[in-house]
Write a structure and sequence with these properties.
Layout: E1 9-11, H1 13-24, E2 28-33, H2 40-48, H3 53-58, E3 60-64, H4 73-77, E4 81-85, H5 98-118, E5 122-125, H6 147-159, E6 164-172, E7 199-202, H7 219-245
Parallel strand pairs: 1-7, 2-5, 2-6, 3-4, 3-5
Antiparallel strand pairs: 6-7
Helix pairs in contact: 6-7
């Protein structure tokens, strides 16, 4: 009831058809996206379910641990296919839980590798490891992508034994349930929901093996340039969404 469907838009529908064709052949699709609020999986599903019900229903979301521990987020997460990971922002807190969290993350990555090896899976991941928040000017900007996160999924895809396709995805869902302006370590954030349109933009398939900057010899620099390139694509599509509809 919070989404104003009459004003909500999905861009890149031709890319959705392309992804569905790839999934139908037993190949994988990984969506490298921004993340704005806990109901993002539900928002994506609701905007896609009329035209692409199976694609929406079977999408798998790599989510932060708070979606299964925060009382506000738990009901929002029910009914979604989730693989939960503790982000670097929260893995050290509290210190005595660090090892347990690291083991949990290892199990999750093993499960994701297994899913990719099975083939025919569409996985959403936010390489920023958190939600988009206001910049110093008060504007909501796409959080930078972590090069190691992008690299990890690229390596898993290569090791899966199945063709895996990467696409950028931009979400404009922030007003639905804005996060606090700062990263909170404890549960119990004050939140306020709004009735709003939401928008998605599925970008063109990425050529992960030939991304600008790949000619650089240094591995660390290469990873950063790859992540920054994908982030710029998502950010550009996000800004177009804002300019067109919000």
């Amino acid at each position: 009831p919070l989404i104003v469907f009459s004003k909500s838009k999905v861009h890149g529908k031709n890319n959705i058809l392309k992804m569905k064709g790839q999934l139908g052949k037993g190949e994988n699709v990984i969506l490298l996206a921004n993340h704005q609020t806990e109901p993002d999986p539900q928002a994506i599903s609701l905007l896609l379910e009329k035209e692409h019900p199976q694609f929406a229903e079977e999408m798998i979301f790599v989510a932060g641990h708070r979606v299964i521990s925060d009382p506000l987020a738990i009901p929002i997460s029910m009914g979604c296919n989730l693989c939960c990971i503790f982000s670097k922002k929260h893995i050290e807190n509290p210190p005595e839980k660090k090892q347990e969290k690291l083991l949990h993350n290892q199990r999750t990555m093993k499960k994701l590798s297994q899913l990719l090896s099975e083939g025919g899976k569409c996985i959403y991941v936010a390489p920023s490891g958190g939600r988009d928040r206001p910049n110093p000017d008060g504007e909501i900007d796409v959080a930078p992508f972590d090069p190691n996160s992008v690299e990890m999924f690229w390596l898993m895809a290569q090791q899966s034994g199945k063709p895996t396709h990467f696409y950028p995805l931009a979400l404009a869902t922030y007003k639905l349930l804005p996060p606090p302006n700062s990263v909170e370590k404890k549960l119990g954030e004050r939140r306020q929901a709004h009735c709003t349109p939401v928008h998605l933009a599925f970008g063109d398939e990425l050529d992960m093996a030939n991304i600008p900057g790949d000619s650089v010899a240094d591995k660390k620099t290469k990873r950063k340039q790859r992540a920054d390139h994908i982030w710029n694509l998502v950010r550009s599509d996000y800004q177009k969404l804002l300019g067109s509809h919000v």
